[in-house]
Amino acid sequence: MKTNFVSNAALALALSGSLLCTAQQKNSYVLDLKNTGVKIQPTMYGIFFEDINLGADGGLYAELVKNRSFEFANPMMGWSQPNSDKHSLNEKSGYATVIKTEKEINRHMIRVEVNNAAGYSLVNEGFRGMGIKANDTYNVSFMGAAQSGSISKIKFQLVDEKGGVIGETTISVSGKDWKTYKGQIKATKTDAKGQLKITFDNTGVFNMDMISIFPKDTWNGRENGLRKDMAQKLYDLNPGFLRFPGGCIVEGRTLEQRYQWKKSIGPVEDREMIINRWNVEFGHKQTPDYFQTFGLGFFEYFQLSEDLGAEPLPVLSCGIACQFNTGELAPMAELDPFVQDAVDLIEFANGAVTTTWGKKRAEMGHPQPFNLKFIGVGNEQWGPDYIERYKVFEKAIHAKYPNIKIISTSGPFPTGEHFDYAWKELKALNAQIIDEHYYAKPEWFKQNVTRYDNYDRKGPKVFAGEYAAQTVAIASPENKNNWEAALSEAAFMTGLERNAEVVHMTSYAPLFAHVEGWQWTPDLIWVDNLNSFATPNYYVQQLYGQNPGTDLVSITTGGKAITGQNGMYATAVTDAATGEVIVKVVNTTAKAQKTDIAVKGKKLAKEGKMIMLQSDDLQAENNFTSEKVTPKTSTFTLNGSKIDVEIPAQAVVVFRVKIK
Q1: CATH architecture under which domain 47-62+218-536 falls
Q2: Given the residues 251, 311, 347, 380, the one annotated as active site
Q3: Which of 58, 88, 166, 389 has the largest CB neighbor count within 10 A?
Q4: Is 380 noted as a catalytic residue in this protein?
Q5: What is the CATH code of the structural domain delimited by 79-215?
Q6: Given the DSSP bridges, would you call strands 374-377 and 291-292 parallel, antiparallel or unpaired?
Q7: Residues contacting residue 228 through CB under 8 Å, at least 6 positions apart
Q8: What confidence tens digit (pLDDT) does each residue in 488-497 have?
Q9: What confidence tens digit (pLDDT) does each residue in 597-636 have?
Q10: CB 314 within 8 A of CB 301
Q11: Secretion signal: which residues (predicted)?
């Protein structure tokens, strides 16, 4: 089990019988360890990733240089020439010009003309600055070709917010042919707002492209890979799956701007960059410098899934652009390329190295298949146009790959005309898994804990693909990742787990947010250029993800499921691998509640482990300097055959006890 919880001996005392007299309410529960026949799917608790809030470029993808290949709409965005006097009547120190190439994909490069080496420099600002850490090593690379003059060395310097040099390296260059050059910089100082400064040793003309800086210390040590602290937080969730690359990113504002996986694989310099659809979506947070370089592409997503021990879950365009934007449709007669993309993706993931796309996977360094089992068709589409297109995808995919499970969509909302229509049509088509999304007030989550109690057990299974409590309103910039929201999500998740016969996959959304580059709140993990912190919502997800169990068992009060009686919610599972029973109890009230859990069917050990999230302040939030709401672990002693404890106010408690 992946865990980083801190033990807290005092917690055992707080939950012991010595304090039971303070309880304001007594609950009598029955935990029946009889096998219900309902399995908890290994995919029950997973991760949803979308490149929103600087989630990929400027976030998880550890590249520090913004617009490294000069392909942004403004090709010099992110770059400056502080000492250039290109338009001066006096002698020019030098200047850079973006040149169109004859390449089909990487269409631009930069030509640097240096007339006075002592007076010219080229500077990149990074993504809201560059996070540089003292004593860390940074890999520098670029493509270059001399054109004229006597430039033989190029100096790369990391500079701090005030312009002071905090690390440098000099790279020798030669020849007119394009070459890839590499070097390393060791930083001498930590700075969240660093920049890259490039200077030249002599005069001349030199062409450059793909100017890049990565920390050497990346996740799993992969060269030019992922930011270590962010990927580690994903690993610590113990996810059962990784859904990627979105989200509305999949759809695009227009079909031309949709995510096309084939353009995201192969050499990074050959991946075709596009604008990020979130860059100007919201008036409250315009981000016109937000683009997708696809350095984090489909191969890297599959690789990350493998590293996390999670099932990969790619989602592809179904031929409909985001219906909140243009809703542009690919005509049915022109749908074949979209469908072929889906079929080819399965071959890329699972095909032998002798197949066309399996060979491409092998060429990227992964000859073994990724063992893809799931694929999503569309994101939040709705209406007859979606159903018509889904039918074509389903027929083509299952004709060639009958064992692949297809995830369809019920639209962006958890109720209403579009939702009802999608479920009716998809159920009639024997759809396998339907993706439901809900962003709502914390109270909604508590009120809907029984949402799946009456779903057809023989019908399509449910993927709760995107959900998060909104403390103000959907997409409000004032939403908070506070304890009230997290507590309500914890209560709701008891209903997801209790209905594991229907609900097979769940994931919070969105995942990451940069404090200076976000568009949407709330979010699971917040980052700046140097650090990250986990929200209370994250720790709720972690409690469930690290304690999923394998088999559902019954926990009741008065013969009924615990779904809000006295403000309490509960669910229970057994874990075949560890031989334990795992009970999750959520107290949403402001009062501690004495809780006796009688055990039927089997005997338990005398002592167990207890993990708790709690705060007396519903508005409590975590931040970079203080995580106020974090899990605490302790041991507890059973009272004979009972788990006889007090559940503190506003708490999520997980009990793990060995079954004799």
Answers
A1: Alpha-Beta Barrel (3.20)
A2: 380
A3: 58
A4: yes
A5: 2.60.120.260
A6: unpaired
A7: 62, 215, 217, 218, 219
A8: 999 999 999 9
A9: 999 999 999 999 999 999 999 999 999 999 999 999 999 9
A10: yes
A11: 1-23
